Amino acid sequence: MGVVIIDGSTVRSFVNDETHFHKSVEEAFASLDLNNDGVLSRSELRRAFESLRLIDTHFGVDVATPEEELTQLHDSIFDKFDCDNSGGVDRKEFMNEMRNILEAIADGLGSSPVQMALEDDKGFLKLAVDLEASKVFA
Length: 138
Ligand SMILES: [Ca+2]
Ligand SMILES: [Ca+2]
Known about the structure:
By secondary structure, this protein is mainly α. It has one domain (2-136): Recoverin, domain 1 (Orthogonal Bundle), CATH 1.10.238. The chain has helices at 8-16, 18-32, 42-51, 54-58, 67-81, 91-109, 123-136; strands at 2-6, 39-40, 89-90, 114-118. It has a two-stranded antiparallel ribbon with strand order 1-4. The protein has a two-stranded antiparallel sheet with strand order 2-3. Helix 1 runs antiparallel to helix 6, helix 2 packs across helix 6 (91-109) and helix 6 (91-109) crosses helix 7 (123-136). The two termini are 24 Å apart. The chain binds calcium ion (CA) (2 copies). One calcium ion binds at residues 82, 84, 86, 88-90, 93. InterPro entries: EF-hand-dom_pair (IPR011992), EF_Hand_1_Ca_BS (IPR018247), EF_hand_dom (IPR002048). This is EF-hand domain-containing protein. Residues 20-55, 69-104 form the EF-hand domain. Keywords: Calcium. It comes from Buddleja alternifolia.
């Protein structure tokens, strides 16, 4: 766990650093693709978000939220990644959406630095989604 200060240019330089960015996305994808079939299924993506406790901490969902609403929320996240509606998120889709999210975040942050706490093992995805949340609720 470490704390970093980032702003829009930090995020942009990360996305524009092709080698580093591709490597980070590949690593994140590989760790999420539990059955190693090359695509992220609905449940694999959902498990990823749940394991990171992103829903409850960042989307304002409390423990009493009905299962139906949680499923809808997870479905909308999944649909955003699954561009061709194939029912699975492949590496290319995952990389494209992560890039979209990060670029939107970079625009949203502009030059206002924010402080981020990062968990070492899941740093990349957490960074991306934390940043998105910070933009949505800014
Ligand atoms: Ca899979
Ligand atoms: Ca797809």
